[in-house]
Design a protein that fits this description.
The complex is a heterodimer of chains A (315) and B (154). Chain A has 315 residues and is α+β, with helices and mostly antiparallel strands. Chain A has 13 helices and 14 strands. Chain B starts with a strand and ends with a helix.
Chain lengths: 315, 154
């Protein structure tokens, strides 16, 4: 016999989850998955979609906080996130359809732990953590420690994800997420990559790169990051953000971008499925990584990259 | 176990007892009796079931009715004022945006949400917004032209 309660606060949700209920917010994974035949609906469900304070975006004390119930549509219309975490907007802009984006939440996307989720790689590049609250209190867990396998997290079944938190990037930072897609909407990443870079004094001072749908868990690629850090942007490059072709030329930064792509392909251990073969995914890992790094560098140096960067890099 | 909810559909309140697993689509079609919204794929691919919940476009086949308790639901039946069609509905007729009609309720709801957020959409914005609504008859051009024409009329 199936049951449902609607939680009015975090404590009520946690209590229901401790009794075995599964949380539902937008329903775009849990309910759609059941309709799709992936897994039946849980017998016991707790609605968390109207818990006050679990949605919304704030920036304070150098921390960007995005509530678990924040929809992709809300992420897309946030001026704070547009400047601080453009790579996250690249991802939210291409999740499902506009109905998916109006109802699907960031919390659901992150906690479903799909290796193909669009928001995962940009959040990982932004060094994000999740805030988990259970019967024993609240703790923060980095995404690399949260995702333990396809569809699996280290959160206990009675812990509710309250928010994503990430450090407010400094001036001179830029991020981007690019996926390979057969169509622009209603699509799941064939492969994807995100990049976060900081540029100071004409060189890359920090770099983080993560890959999507290429490993059992979305993960950083240290080899790509090492290829980029310390590399100088030529004097022409730094003012040529409108012309990304320059990044692919044989320059110090062009060579570094190429090496970052090769490192991503070397780190890939993809599956073959209906969307692509493992070999194709591995080959394309280099391409999407180059595109993501190029878009992030362009943004970091003041150039314009429209959201979503996937469309920008295919133009 | 049934859950008592109040569903407000097109401004009318309906006290209902629903199964926790019942979809909003089946509840509105079978218990409220409004059959304009269609079941196509039943897993959020086709958009034929689309409704607005508090103004948000939702694939009602994949949304639990219990979650819509107390919310304002709008279906295609709620767009026109009696026989007085909205500019968008008239444009669908004038531009050949309707053939078999099965996708039309979802298309109208989806486009209504688009025009509320973007009163002057580009053709690309129209095509992006309607990409979750499948049509197997029109080839989409008449539908896109209808949305653009409705936007022109403001």
């Amino acid at each position: 016999m199936s049951t449902y309660v609607e939680a009015r606060d975090v404590a009520a949700a946690v209590a229901a989850m401790a009794d075995g209920a599964r949380p539902v917010a937008g329903g775009t994974d849990l309910v759609v998955g059941a309709r799709h035949g992936k897994a039946p609906l849980p017998e016991s469900i707790v609605g968390i979609h109207r818990i006050p304070g679990l949605d919304g975006i704030s920036v304070a004390d150098g921390v960007v906080r995005i509530g678990a119930l924040t929809s992709h549509a809300a992420i897309l219309s946030s001026p704070e996130l547009a400047s601080a975490t453009a790579g996250l907007l690249d991802a939210s802009a291409i999740v499902g359809s506009h109905a998916t984006r109006a109802n699907g939440t960031l919390g659901g996307n992150v906690m479903n732990a799909s290796p193909a989720m669009d928001t995962g790689a940009p959040l990982l590049c932004h060094d994000a953590s999740v805030v988990l609250t259970g019967p024993g209190g609240t703790r923060r867990v980095g995404l690399a420690e949260l995702w333990t396998g396809p569809g699996k997290t280290s959160a206990s079944p009675d812990e509710l994800m309250e928010a994503v938190e990430l450090p407010l990037p400094p001036e001179g930072a830029g991020s981007a997420y690019v996926r390979l897609q057969y169509r622009r909407q209603m699509e799941i990443a064939v492969v994807g990559a995100a990049a976060y870079v900081e540029v100071s004094d004409g060189a890359v001072s920090a770099a983080r790169v993560a890959i999507t749908a290429l490993t059992p868990v979305i993960c950083r690629v240290p080899g790509s990051e090492e290829a980029l850090v310390g590399r100088r942007l030529g004097s022409n490059d730094s003012v040529s953000g409108e012309n990304p072709a320059v990044w692919t030329q044989t320059t110090e930064i062009g060579d570094a971008i190429h090496a970052a792509g090769q490192a991503a392909a070397a780190a890939a251990t993809p599956i073959s499925d209906v969307r692509a073969s493992a070999g194709y995914r591995t080959a394309m890992a280099a391409v999407v990584t180059r595109r993501a790094v190029t878009a992030a560098l362009t943004r970091a140096t003041g150039g314009s990259v429209t959201v979503p960067a996937s469309d920008w890099s295919e133009r | 176990m049934s859950i008592d909810i109040t569903l407000t559909v097109n401004g009318v309140s309906h006290p209902l007892a629903v199964d926790p697993h019942a979809s909003l689509l089946h509840t509105v079609r079978d218990q409220v009796g409004l059959t304009g919204s269609k079941e196509g794929c039943d897993d959020s691919e086709c958009g034929a079931c689309m409704m607005l919940i508090d103004g948000r476009p939702v694939n009602a086949c994949s949304y639990l009715a219990v979650q819509a308790d107390g919310a304002e639901v709008t279906t295609v039946e709620g767009l026109a004022d009696g026989n007085d069609l909205t500019p968008l509905q008239r444009a669908f007729l004038e531009k050949g945006g309707v053939q078999c009609g099965f996708c039309t309720p979802g298309m109208l709801i989806s486009a209504t949400a688009l025009l509320r957020d973007h009163p002057r959409p580009t053709e690309d914005q129209i095509r992006i917004a309607l990409s979750g609504n499948l049509c197997r008859c029109t080839g989409y051009d008449g539908i896109v032209a209808a949305v653009a024409a409705a936007a022109e009329q403001g």
